[in-house]
Amino acid sequence: MREANSNVSNEEGRIRESWLTKSLRRNELYRYGIILYDKTGNPSPTKWIADIRTPNLYDKYFNTFISHYKSSNGKTYDLASLPLGVSFNIKNLPTGCTGYEIVRCVRRE
Questions:
Q1: 31 - beta bridge partners?
Q2: How many Cα atoms sit within 13 Å of 72 on the Cβ side?
Q3: Distance between CA atoms of 43 and 45, rounded to whole angstroms?
Q4: Which H/E stretch holds residue 15?
Q5: pTM of the entire structure?
Q6: CB neighbour burial string for 69-78, b if at least 16 within 10 angstroms, e if fewer
Q7: What is the mean pLDDT of residues 78-107?
Q8: For residue 18, which phi and psi values (nearest 5 degrees)?
Q9: Residues in contact with 9: Cβ distance below 8 Å, sequence separation at least 6, in sequence order
Q10: Average pLDDT score over residue span 73-89
Q11: Can you say how many angstroms the Cα of residue 36 is from the centroid of all Cα atoms in its chain?
């Protein structure tokens, strides 16, 4: 059983480790769901959370790359790539739920 991490890493960590991180594709629609687990580890059926469209590469105010980026600690990067991802903040889990897993689901139109 895995519990999704709702913490967003700081900007420095995102840039330093972006080459290690798999990114979502630009301008794609992704469907997300949640699976809840009880105290014995039994999973619930997947419950829909949202369909999320990622920004297009050319969307205003969305930076895929940053050149000559100076971080808060003074280190300068010639070129930095920012991976694209989503983060969920989970609250108010039902009584008896001891864990959860965020999953990407197949969309069937």
A1: 51, 105
A2: 6
A3: 7
A4: helix 11-16
A5: 0.63
A6: beeeeeeeee
A7: 85
A8: -65, -30
A9: 17
A10: 78
A11: 18
Output the average pLDDT for the chain.
76
Q: Decide which of 79 and 54 is more confident.
A: 54
Question: CA torsion angle for 56, 61, 67, 70 (degrees, to 10)?
Answer: -140
- Residue 12: helix, strand or coil by DSSP? helix
* Neighbouring C-alpha atoms within 13 Å toward the C-beta of 83: 18
**Amino acid, single-letter form, for residue 85:** G
CA distance 77 to 74: 10
Instruction: Give the tokens for residue 63.
Output: 């930076």
Q: 99: part of which helix (H) or strand (E)?
A: strand 99-105
**Which residues are within 8 A (CB) of 12 and not within 5 positions of it... i.e. 6 or more apart?**
71, 72, 73, 75
* Residue 15: alpha-carbon gap to chain centroid: 15
DSSP-assigned letter for residue 64: S
| CA 43/CA 6 separation, integer angstroms | 20
Q: Which contiguous run of DSSP H or E holds residue 77? A: strand 76-81
